[in-house]
Amino acid sequence: MFTLGIIPARFGSKRLPRKNFLKIGGKTLVEWTIEQAAGAKLLDEYLVSTDDKRPPYLCQDDTPTLYVLAYHGASVPVVVCLQPNIWGRTSEDIDEAIAYYRQEGLDTLYSRGFGDRPDGSIWVISGELLRNGRMYGPKTGSLLSKNPIINIDTEFDFWQAEQAYERSGHS
Q: What are phi and psi of 130, to 5 degrees?
């Protein structure tokens, strides 16, 4: 089943300007996400969706990610959303999520931290749901993220991600 990775990378951000293009370890958050997508064996293809690759109505502060995913992925069987401002995800995490989605016959799978709230790291969604303007279907599942996930929305969040990178031995 064809699986498309979508990296929704807006240029703007109210709280942390150009956050998707900030650098950790010499690479932007978008570049880290591209590497993760390229390393995932179960993604057939991936694309980076930036403001210059979609209509203006999909580039607003209040545009739901769902609309961006539907614009690029409604015609494919499965879409994997990989937001670049999420730190801590790996290619192996992506493959594990896709495998679990397929094995369980799910409509939607989201990664989560402790508790059952999505952490934003990985979303696997059927193209059919996207065509119908939805992210959640009757068969929704979740997978616990193996690594601590940092949602980078503020300067403090970015600092935490930099610290996590340095602690990982990459610096």
A: -60, -40
Instruction: Burial-class residue 51 by CB neighbours within 10 Å (0-12, 13-18, 19+).
Output: middle
Give residues with Cβ within 8 angstroms of 101, minimum separation 6: 78, 109, 124, 141
Which regions in the chain score pLDDT beneath 70? 170-171
Nearest-angstrom CA–CA distance, 120 and 38: 19
CA dihedral for 160, 163, 169, 171, sign (positive or negative): positive
Which pLDDT score is estimated for 170?
A: 66
CA separation, residue 154 to residues 19, 37, 103, 127 (Å): 8, 24, 36, 32
Q: How many beta carbons lie within 10 A of that of residue 14, not counting itself?
A: 8
Q: Phi/psi class of residue 25: alpha, beta or left (left: φ > 0; alpha: ψ in -120 to 50)?
A: left
Question: What is the C-alpha separation between 96 and 145, in angstroms, rounded?
Answer: 10
Q: What is the pLDDT of residue 115?
A: 77
